[in-house]
Amino acid sequence: MTNDNETSRRFRRPPQRLTAAPLHKFPIGGRVIQKSGAPTDADSFHVTRHLPDAGAGLQYRMKRDRDGQERVAVESALELVAGDDLIQ
Asked: How far apart are CA 9 and CA 21, in angstroms?
């Protein structure tokens, strides 16, 4: 016959390991451009929100300065606008 202590020891789960969440490279409010094509400052975007990794890398919600168009892009497709020193 077993007591409750033996039963709980047998079914105890190992402790879960916490991994550090990856950090976003560009801060909210930072100005970025997309690397594809011939990017110009006229096509710059302001980061409005950090989004989680959806399998392709960290994502950003951003809004174009010129016309207010919004889009989502992965971090690897973006670069900081020259002279914008908001990086943390």
From this structure: 31
